[in-house]
Amino acid sequence: MPPANSIRNTQGYEDATIDSNIEISRISVVFISLIASLIGCWATASLFAGMTSSGGTGQLIKNLFTAIGG
Predict the structure, then answer these.
(1) Between 20 and 30 A from 50 (CA), which of 7, 9, 34, 60?
(2) pTM for the whole thing?
(3) CA 15, CA 61: separation in Å to the nearest integer?
C-alpha cells in the first residue's frame, strides 16, 4: 500500500497540469483576440483610405461595383 503522501503528491501534479493547460488556453484566446483586433483596425483604416482616395462614400461604392462588374 503506497503512503498517503504519494497520493497527495499525485493529486497535486494533476492539479498543476490542469492549471497550466487552462493558462495556456487563456493565453491563446487573448493572443488570437489581439490579432483579430489588429486585423480589424487595419481593415477599417484601409476602408477610410479608400474612401479618401476615391472621393467619398458614394464614389467608393460606385468604384467597387465597377471593379466587380467590369
Answers:
(1) 34
(2) 0.59
(3) 56
